[in-house]
Amino acid sequence: MYIQETIKTKYPPGDLALWIFICAELLVFAVFFAAYAFTRASNIELFNQYQATLNTDLALLNTIALLTSSYFVVSAIIAIKENKQQKSTRFLFLSIIGGCAFLIMKMTEYSHHMSEGINLTTNLFYMFYLSLTFFHFMHVILGIMILVVLWLNTRKGLYTADNHDGLVSGGAYWHMVDLVWLILFPLIYIMR
After folding, report:
1. Contacts by residues 60-65 (CB-CB < 8 Å, ≥ 24 positions apart)
2. Transmembrane region positions (predicted)?
3. Per-residue pLDDT for the chain (192 aa), expressed as one digit of tens each?
């Protein structure tokens, strides 16, 4: 007779307090997105006109950088579950590089807008564009700081196949940052 072994999985994975924080952050972004959509509906021509001035190619590269970075975070978690600390460390380092690439490209975009004299008071579209993307930008910075701590802890051997909740929790935060960008990118740059 075949006996199937049941593996108990913790739900939600990682730290519950971080999941509560992630849900609160998503709620704040949802309010921002709703305000953007409501304001856009009343100012379609203005939003379409200035949305066309954004660099969608750079925004697409930002999307690729964040998604690739998230892939490396998932790979780091899989590696640690297999007790492969060195491999996990390398994947975390690559995820940090992806996050930094996002920041550099976003700063390039902000620099271009500032050189054009664009700021929060230019018009409603730019007020939302700058507010939403900068709020996300700050979350990326926090996410990179978390990834650096995870990378250092993994290098020290603090995570194992049996003890990796911290790594999973940090990864969950980084995925939240990605999720927000995956909504922000089409909302701000593409949808007309």
Report:
1. 60/185, 61/105, 62/102, 62/105, 62/106, 62/181, 62/185, 63/181, 63/182, 63/185, 65/98, 65/99, 65/101, 65/102, 65/105
2. 16-38, 58-79, 91-108, 128-152, 172-191
3. 444 444 455 666 667 788 888 999 999 999 999 999 999 999 999 999 999 999 999 999 999 999 999 999 999 999 999 999 999 999 999 999 999 999 999 999 999 999 999 999 999 999 999 999 999 999 999 999 999 999 999 999 999 888 888 899 999 999 999 999 999 999 999 988
Q: Which residue's entry shows tokens 């807008």?
A: 113
For the chain, the domains span 63-190
Superfamily of domain 63-190: Cytochrome c oxidase, subunit III, four-helix bundle (1.20.120.80)
Nearest to 141 by CA among 110, 105, 177, 179: 177
CB 33 within 8 A of CB 187: yes
| Counts of helices then strands in the chain (DSSP H, E) | 6, 0
Which two structure tokens, joined as six digits, stand for 119? Answer: 């700021």
- Rounded distance, CA 8 to CA 192, Å? 46
